[in-house]
Design a protein that fits this description.
This protein has 8 helices and 11 strands. It has 229 residues and is an alpha/beta fold. The strands form 3 sheets. A 5-stranded parallel sheet has the order 2-1-3-4-5, sandwiched between helices. It has a 4-stranded antiparallel sheet with strand order 6-7-8-9, with helices on one face.
Length: 229
């Protein structure tokens, strides 16, 4: 599943600015416009990250943060506020906020902080799933439908990256950079060979889940259009 963000922000213009920008970056964003709606959203669903404004009608951001942490929920929280006094930043962090951003801010900084918090949370995850595919990094064991997959180190790294970005169109250059940790020169077919072999092993146990998206790269998940081989 894609990264799910809850945005609790009562200023419509700011909320739209944040939500639109993050959606364009591939995040799934839902907004709560006040403290009551924010509390309901927090209580009723699981979120990968919560972006929380301090000043809200109903319970304010600090009250929501206290409520979240009192239930031992470790969901990362990025606080947004016009307050910039050191004492107030310290209070928010001590109350359980993971990061703090003062208004006004540049979207690029917000995005960088969101990505950092998501990465930090993901490092604590050892098991990754999509459908009937499971990769347990604590044991280096991959399975599909309960049957073990024999993967090379590179194939496992490739599958892990796909599992971390389901539903996203991943270009060849992005995959090469993050799995091979090198720049893609556009000439080597190394990536295609590894994707083909990973597909072969996965498809021996079920339908295709890694699709070629024409002109964009590859995608893990359902792909409604036609694809190249």
């Amino acid at each position: 599943m894609a990264v799910r963000l809850l945005l609790v922000e009562d200023e419509d213009e700011i909320a739209e600015f944040i939500a639109q920008g993050l959606r364009e970056e591939g995040f799934v964003v839902e907004r709560a416009a006040n403290g009551h709606d924010g509390q309901n959203a927090i209580d009723s669903s699981r979120w990968d990250l919560i972006i929380l404004d301090w000043w809200l009608s109903g319970p304010d951001g600090m009250a929501l943060l206290h409520s979240l942490r009192s239930k031992n929920q470790s969901t990362p929280v990025l606080f947004l506020t016009a307050r910039d006094a050191v004492r107030e930043r310290v209070d928010a962090l001590r109350a359980g906020a993971d990061d703090y951003l003062c208004k006004p801010f540049a979207f690029e900084e917000l995005l960088a902080r969101v990505e950092a918090l998501v990465r930090r949370a993901a490092r604590g995850t050892t098991e990754w799933r999509y459908g009937d595919v499971v990769l347990d990094m604590s044991t280096n064991c991959a399975q599909r439908g309960g049957t073990s997959l024999s993967l090379t180190v590179r194939e496992q790294a490739l599958l892990l990256f796909f599992l971390r970005h389901p539903g996203e169109d991943l270009s060849r250059s992005v995959l090469y950079e993050h799995v091979w940790h090198d720049e893609f020169d556009g000439l080597s077919n190394t990536l295609e060979v590894h994707v083909m072999e990973l597909r072969r092993k996965l498809e021996a146990l079920g339908p295709r889940i890694i699709h070629t998206v024409r002109g964009r790269g590859y995608r893990l998940g359902e792909y409604p259009g036609s694809e190249t081989p």
